[in-house]
Amino acid sequence: MNVVPLSSLSALSPLDGRYASRVAALRPLLSEFGLMHRRVQVEVEWFIALSDCGFAEFKPLSEAARGLLRSIVTRFSEADAQAIKDIEKTTNHDVKAVEYWLKSRFEANAELKAAGEFVHFACTSEDINNTSHGLMLKAARAEVLLPTIDKIVTKLTDMARTLAAVPMLSRTHGQTASPTTVGKEIANVVARLAQARSRIADVKLLAKMNGAVGNYNAHLSAWPEYDWEAFSQRVIEGALGLTFNPYTIQIEPHDYMAELFDAVTRTNTILIDWSRDVWGYVSLGYFKQRTKAGEIGSSTMPHKVNPIDFENAEGNFGLANALLTHLSQKLPISRWQRDLTDSTVLRNMGVALGYAVLGYDSLLKGLDKLEINEAALAADLDSAWEVLAEPIQTVMRRYALPNPYERLKELTRGKAITREAIAQFIDTLELPEAEKARLRELTPGNYTGRAESLAKRI
């Protein structure tokens, strides 16, 4: 069998192939390298904190030793990750390989070497893994997810305000309906995204460091009188910046992960909805797309400028949501005090969030190409005078005219209505002349309610 060397062309996942450059920001955070890096960070912070417990057997580390340890974290390289991977070939245990590698870095320092057995002291692998996953998600959320979503919100907010006064025919059930403005429809998306973004940002990232089954058994066997729970909380919240979870089995239950992934899924769903709407507006001619020299829309139809960015966004959001939904449904479930089904699934966090980021990137590219086509919008409105049946019958109700809904239904339902037909109908109504004049001033283009002001204030 011919083995093809790994490259961007031979990668099984398009995230590491065709789209590698577009998700590069996630790679150092959610990859195997990223997991190893955070494991080293957790081991180092636990080790330093232990030295400050006041145990006679482990004196406080010198400032020089602390600096050296933290420099191992800040300077962690791909070569370091590979060295850990090489150790894992022997141990067949990824966390133990990190412990052995870290101890090997102590060989040239007498102070650290003497305290080497306090590396990974009283820890189960999940004490290191769950905190590492929390740190990975913390960085991915703060450095990639939220800033990218914020770019979308900013872009849409600018569009909502710029296009606040541009009237547009609505379509409910695909049929002509009361007019709105382009900006107001975009403002609706901004409002939804603001709520969705806050749900992502507000999820507390939990962690535990309490031993093999969550009870500090090993810790207390060494120092029975020490408050290990308080110590664990100090490390998790003070040194690592996560939120302490006091009640766990061997693993942190991952409920917060489910909450976070569900929040991202909801955000993606809003953007699928918007991507489909924009696709439709492009099809109607409401938006034009700026072309780029050399680009081809169709291999056989030269005129085409396809809305491919919105189609790509929709497809990638769908992939992201399928994976994120599996993660949120599977991760909180563990047989008894622990099984390993979460471990292999957690390695796909980067894949799930990678597809989300790819969707955000595609959507932003598409939005940057859009140009409003006011002529098409105006023509569509001018062919839909039947939408004024709503305000006319509402004014008729105010003045208690009989059967207003039924009379307008008879006039308009399923019929092509003109400005003249509307004016003639208004002339027949038993209304004050001032009200008739006001109704005659209505057009599909100015019957937009508070759409403009709502869009401008978003």
UniProtKB/TrEMBL annotation:
Pathway: Purine metabolism; IMP biosynthesis via de novo pathway; 5-amino-1-(5-phospho-D-ribosyl)imidazole-4-carboxamide from 5-amino-1-(5-phospho-D-ribosyl)imidazole-4-carboxylate: step 2/2; Purine metabolism; AMP biosynthesis via de novo pathway; AMP from IMP: step 2/2
Keyword Lyase listed: yes
Gene Ontology molecular function, alphabetical: lyase activity
Catalyzed reaction equations: (2S)-2-[5-amino-1-(5-phospho-beta-D-ribosyl)imidazole-4-carboxamido]succinate = 5-amino-1-(5-phospho-beta-D-ribosyl)imidazole-4-carboxamide + fumarate; N(6)-(1,2-dicarboxyethyl)-AMP = fumarate + AMP
Keywords: Lyase, Purine biosynthesis
UniProt entry tagged with the keyword Lipoprotein: no
Enzyme Commission (EC) number: 4.3.2.2
Domain Fumarate lyase N-terminal positions: 19-315
Domain Adenylosuccinate lyase PurB C-terminal: 334-448
Protein function: Catalyzes two reactions in de novo purine nucleotide biosynthesis. Catalyzes the breakdown of 5-aminoimidazole- (N-succinylocarboxamide) ribotide (SAICAR or 2-[5-amino-1-(5-phospho-beta-D-ribosyl)imidazole-4-carboxamido]succinate) to 5-aminoimidazole-4-carboxamide ribotide (AICAR or 5-amino-1-(5-phospho-beta-D-ribosyl)imidazole-4-carboxamide) and fumarate, and of adenylosuccinate (ADS or N(6)-(1,2-dicarboxyethyl)-AMP) to adenosine monophosphate (AMP) and fumarate.
Family of this protein: Belongs to the lyase 1 family. Adenylosuccinate lyase subfamily.
Protein name, entry field: Adenylosuccinate lyase
Gene giving rise to this polypeptide: purB
